[in-house]
Write a structure and sequence with these properties.
Elements lengths: L17 E7 L7 H20 L8 E7 L4 H13 L4 E4 L3 H14 L3 E3 L15 E3 L4 H14 L4 E6 L3 H14 L5 E6 L5 H10 L4 E5 L6 H10 L7 E3 L8 H7 L8 E3 L7 H14 L5 H20 L3 H5 L7 E3 L2 E6 L7 E4 L4 E6 L2 E10 L1
Parallel strand pairs: 1-2, 1-3, 3-4, 4-5, 5-13, 6-7, 6-8, 8-9
Antiparallel strand pairs: 10-14, 11-12, 12-13, 14-15
Helix pairs in contact: 1-9, 1-10, 2-3, 4-5, 6-7
């Protein structure tokens, strides 16, 4: 069934608000902490834009919708927001949810700037309407694989839950490690208890275990089981998707949550803008901002710049992605077409592998830079 395209957002000159639809996970089973960080960055950037006079005198108005990590709920929110006349969509953290939102936004002719989701394929077909800030999963996870190889890990086990995102990550690791002498062993956490996972790690002679699972369950019991097993004293526990970035990880695991490498999209040193925004976000969140909070801020920075030239017209906004050249919190932001991606892809995004320092779990160590 063909859904008629909603009319483009109007361009009134009476100072009425310029609306942006925002998709974030704010309730379970979504990753709520990531959603709050993402929204904090988005809201702070919008507040700064409005304090500076808005977009050609029009204030930005954020219409926030909780996706709860539900693709169907996200698609319904896109329909609602399109009908409310938003000029563009922003946000989302979960890759499978972002894919649903991006596909629906494309069908409705609604520009969507994805803040955090990394799944390589975000839309069913190539589109000019969707752009993305973070690097695709294939790039970040290859950086992580390079880190593993450099640390001497060629027998890598993955404890995974069923998910398109986790399956894609496992395939990326396997395809990258195999020609370099590496092996990936699959462990299905639905069929194995934490104790059984430990037994399999010993039996398979794995030197690294990657957690491709949710937090706190089953990540926390898995980490504790491995840390308590003397046979696995030398095994590396990793979480490439970034669970240890957030304070809930340290709170739930304490010292056991240290030395778990993960991917983070920050430069080695923030510039003046990044430091200023980071200080403001720390105050807003009452804790250190994650890279996800910076992604939220950069999302609105880009959209504000684009909307100044497009006036809120959806077609003109979508046509603006290749012309973006904006200073973000982590460096200059530009978009380009990259092989294997049907959307406008942010370039030059910094990639790190980091962990929490065992001597001070509140401090992060940079282990590898991609």
């Amino acid at each position: 069934m063909n859904t008629p395209e909603p009319p483009p957002a109007a361009e009134p000159s009476d100072g009425s608000p310029l609306r942006i639809g925002v998709l974030v996970p704010l309730s379970r089973p979504g990753w709520v902490e990531a959603g709050h960080h993402l929204l904090a960055g988005i809201e702070w950037a919008a507040q700064e834009a409005n304090d500076a006079g808005g977009i050609a005198g029009r204030p930005l108005e954020l219409l926030v919708r909780d996706t709860a990590a539900d693709p169907g709920r996200a698609a319904a929110a896109v329909d609602e927001l399109a009908g409310l006349g938003v000029a563009a969509l922003a946000g989302e953290y979960h890759s499978v949810v972002a894919r649903s939102a991006a596909t629906r936004a494309d069908a409705l002719g609604l520009p969507f700037l994805c803040s955090s989701a990394v799944l390589d394929i975000l839309t069913e077909q190539p589109t000019d309407r969707v752009a993305r800030l973070p690097p695709p999963q294939s790039h970040g996870w290859r950086v992580y694989a390079d880190f593993l190889l450099g640390a001497g890990h060629t027998r890598v086990a993955v404890a995974a839950e069923p998910s398109v995102y986790w399956a894609a990550g496992t395939a990326i690791l396997r395809e990258y490690l195999a020609p370099r002498g590496g092996t990936v062993v699959d462990l299905d956490v639905r069929a194995l208890t934490p104790a059984a996972v430990c037994d399999e790690l010993v039996r398979r002679r794995a030197t690294a275990l990657l957690l491709l699972v949710g937090h706190p369950e089953p990540a926390v019991p898995l980490v504790r089981a491995v840390r308590d097993d003397r046979r696995l004293a030398d095994i590396l526990v990793g979480a490439p998707a970034g669970q240890p970035e957030f304070s809930a990880w340290a709170t739930s695991l304490g010292a056991d949550g240290a030395a778990v490498p993960f991917l983070r999209y920050l430069p080695e040193r923030l510039g003046p803008l990044g430091r200023r925004v980071g200080a403001a976000l720390r105050e807003r969140l009452d804790e250190a901002p994650s890279f996800v909070a910076f992604e939220g801020y950069d999302t609105i920075t880009v959209l504000a710049d684009v909307l100044r030239s497009s006036g809120g017209d959806r077609a003109r906004t979508a046509a603006s992605w290749p012309h973006v050249a904006v200073e973000g919190t982590r460096g200059q932001i530009r978009f380009a077409r990259t092989p294997g991606s049907g959307v406008w892809q942010g370039t030059r995004t910094p990639v790190q592998v980091v962990d929490r320092d065992p001597a001070d779990p509140g401090r992060f160590r940079i282990l590898h830079v991609g």
